[in-house]
Write a structure and sequence with these properties.
By secondary structure, the protein is mainly beta. The protein has a single domain, classed as Sortase (Sortase, Chain: A), CATH 2.40.260.10. It is 5% helix and 39% strand. The chain contains 2 helices and 16 strands. The strands form 5 sheets. An 8-stranded mixed β-barrel has the order 5-6-8-9-15-16-14-13. A hairpin with a 4-residue loop joins strand 11 and strand 12. The chain is globular, with a radius of gyration of 15 Å.
Length: 205
């Protein structure tokens, strides 16, 4: 289980759960960020075509992820973990992991996991709204609201964690009722590849 970055212009999440769950940069070498700018992704180890098909990624399920305090209002997509891998296919949506934790229809039954890319080098992904690069912290304060579809959560805290330690943290992967976990990469002031993840937790209101 591990986290790393596969892109030069993009910080791709890679997380491990229950062995080898990974979030990788998309298979395409050029994608668009939230502003419609091209983001060039370095070639890397990507899941097979069979695995990508099994994920059944949908960039827009007709819902939104909103964090009003930081101005985030982005499409909510969803995908499935398949063959130990998760691959967000783009940088203009946040993605609910449909087969981990709770479902959007029954959020009180467990933890909703939402993952989003942040981008370095001047690009903008959903995760950029959540991070304070200058201070290496979250921009989202405790008490702020997060809307996932029709459900409102109240932020309880945030923390940074080294990518190689993320899979080992049981507090993140416990399927806790009425909880939201947002995961993105924390970019560095130097512009170097991200080495940490930012975790934001919230409770269903």
């Amino acid at each position: 289980m591990f986290i790393t970055v596969l892109a030069v212009g993009v910080a791709g999440l890679i997380i491990g759960v229950l062995g080898a769950l990974r979030i990788l940069a998309p298979a395409t070498q050029t994608v668009l960020d939230l502003r419609g700018n091209q983001v060039h992704v370095d070639p890397g180890t990507l899941p097979s075509a069979r695995t990508q098909e099994a994920m059944k990624a949908d960039p827009d399920i007709g819902q939104r992820l909103k964090v009003p305090s930081v101005g985030l209002n982005v499409r909510l997509g969803e995908l499935s973990e398949a063959d130990g891998t998760i691959t967000p296919p783009g940088f203009d949506s946040a993605y609910l992991v449909r087969n981990l934790g709770a479902s959007l229809d029954h959020p009180g039954q467990g933890t909703l996991y939402v993952v989003a890319h942040s981008v370095r080098g001047g690009g903008i992904g959903p995760g950029n709204y959540l991070i304070d690069v200058e201070h290496g912290t979250a921009r989202v304060e405790p008490g702020a609201t997060v809307q996932v579809g029709e459900h409102t959560y109240v932020v309880t805290g945030s923390k940074t964690i080294e990518k190689d330690r993320l899979p080992e943290d049981p507090s993140i992967w416990a399927n806790t009722p009425r909880r939201l976990v947002l995961i993105t990469c924390l970019q560095q002031r130097s512009g170097a590849p991200s080495t940490d993840n930012l975790i934001i937790t919230a409770t269903l209101h």
